[in-house]
Specification:
Oligomer: heterodimer
CATH class of the largest domain in chain B: Alpha Beta
Structural class of chain A: mainly alpha
Largest interface: A-B, 17 and 13 residues
CATH superfamily of the largest domain in chain B: Response regulator
Keywords (chain B): DNA-binding, Transcription, Transcription regulation
Strand order of the largest sheet of chain B: 2-1-3-4-5
Number of strands of chain B: 5
Distance between the termini of chain A: 51 Å
Protein name (chain B): DNA-binding response regulator
Order of helices and strands of chain B: EHEHEHEEHHHHH
Strand content of chain A: under 5%
CATH architecture of the largest domain in chain B: 3-Layer(aba) Sandwich
GO molecular function (chain B): DNA binding
Pfam family, one (chain B): GerE
Order of helices and strands of chain A: HHHHHHHHHHH
Keywords (chain A): Cytoplasm, Iron, Metal-binding
Number of domains of chain A: 2
Radius of gyration of chain A: 21 Å
Largest sheet of chain B: 5 strands, parallel
Strand content of chain B: 5-15%
Number of helices of chain B: 8
Amino acid sequence: MHIHPNMKMSDLVQSDFELLAVLQRLKIPFGFKDKTIQTVCKEQGIDLHFFLNLVKWFHERDFFPGETLMNHPVKWLVKYLRSTHSCYVDYYIPRIENEIVQMESFDHSAGHNMQLMLKFFREYITEFSSHIQLEEEKIFPYILRLEENLAKEAPDQDFWEKIQGYTIKDFLDEHSDIEEKLVDLRNILLKYLAPPSDNCIFTNVLVEIFRLGNDLNDHTILEENVLIPQVLKLEEEFKKKFPG
Amino acid sequence: MAKVLIAETSYLVRKGLVSLLEHTDGVTELKAAGHPETIMLTLKEYSPDILLLNSAITMPVTNEKLTSILHENARIIYILNTPLPAESPSSQISVFDTKNKLSEKLSFHISQYATQDNDKGETEELTPRERLILKHVALGRTNKEIASELFISTHTVISHRKNITRKLDIKTVSGLTVYAILNGIIKMEDI
């Protein structure tokens, strides 16, 4: 499929429903009628090319538009990543948790295997939440302020002081791998656990874990290959514009 | 485990072979080229195990020279633009071949590289030693603690742990703990 600005938004979704995730995360409301991609983007105040680059990547998977995505204001990407976070925290994770709870009630195995999986998954949730908290409370506000201050005549004093001793590179060190445990969970369920009596739920949990895993993967790619390089560039510009 | 180079001028055939080989077990790396010069360059740098070469491409060197550029165990499979008789050799494929025919021939060649590399006699089963190490890991011991308890070096512990992770496909300590409980290596009360 060739994705172009004059294509109808509804046709785009119909040809690849996985793109719904992108729409949701950009907070594009439904009810497109016959509007084109271009029109919908304009109405929602979303940069057309930013949108096109994202959906093309999600759809084709052929090329990664890292360079192109970097040319947009960083606040867009932050907004996107933030809604991705809330999608994980408010929806994906509780859903998987609930399903494991449900499986537990079906589980009559002597070893209480599902109880074990639930414990494992709850540990994961804790880890995951602190990862996201770090980004939401420290990293993203820093990035937004960096972009804001760069546009000013003179930077805010407190921000200027902060940036002297800080770079986004420090964050990279703290950026832990949140996929590892999820992959383990998937492998244990897939390889080492006999499914409990209700197979439909079991299969569905696996499907959702695979989905979340892929989604997290994309999330990491966007952070490490677009967000971080872009912020490094902004930091450089900032230091050039406001030398010490 | 084979590295494959597709040397084919036709865009359609090239893409078709790429998509077929992408889903074939045993292909570790895949490259495609269409122009004779690019093919030569890629051959030298990439050193594939299997070269799929369209017989209609005029290469700048003779066949003998081409074979000498390839490594000792490498092989050439020719892509023909004409149909092949039913009993054609496996070293030839045709653009008219069915998917099954193509898969059969290509898998045959690729599988030969798999057996050569697989001389380690790999099993997924943990050895008794690995089970013992796993038990200690699952109980939350550090590499150092395990080493001193079992009178081995930390280096050995690390190498066992790598093997355990590879065999089980489980990376994290809590994942390994779950596995250990599921398989009766430790008890839930132990942790």
